[in-house]
Amino acid sequence: MSLRELWKRLRRGRAGARFAAVERAYADGPRRHRPLRLLFGLLLLVIGLLASIPPGVPGFLLWVPGLALIASCSRRVARALDRAELALLRSRRRWRARRRSRRRAR
To answer: What is the pTM of this model?
Structure first.
C-alpha cells in the first residue's frame, strides 16, 4: 500500500477506528516489510516534529502518515491512537460549545 492509499484510507475511515483499520489492512501483508514501515513511520514523525519548530512550516502534516505507519505495525498502538483521536474530538467539541456559549452571553 502506498502512502497515497494510506492517506485515502485514513481520510475515509471512521473516527475512532481509522488506525485499527490501517493495522488490519497491513496485517495480511509480508512480515518482512514491518521493520521498514516502522522505521519510515518514525522517520516521518521525527521530520514532522523538527519541521514544526520553525514558525510557518506545517510539519504536522507528516505526523498523521507517520503515526499511521507506526500503527500499521502494532495493534496496541493503533488502538491507543484511535482512543486519542476520540479524546481530541471530544475536547474540541467541548471547546467549541464553550466558545459558542460565551459569544451568546455577550
So the answer is: 0.70
**Is there a contact between 18 and 64 (Cβ–Cβ < 8 Å)?**
no
Q: What is the pLDDT of residues 50-76, one digit of tens each?
A: 998 888 888 888 888 888 888 888 889
**Strand locations in 1-106 (E):** none
What grid cell was written down for 45? 514523525
Distance CA 68, CA 19 (A): 6
Cell 481520510 belongs to which residue? Answer: 11
Nearest to 18 by CA among 28, 8, 27: 8
CA dihedral 76, 78, 84, 85 (to 10 degrees): -160
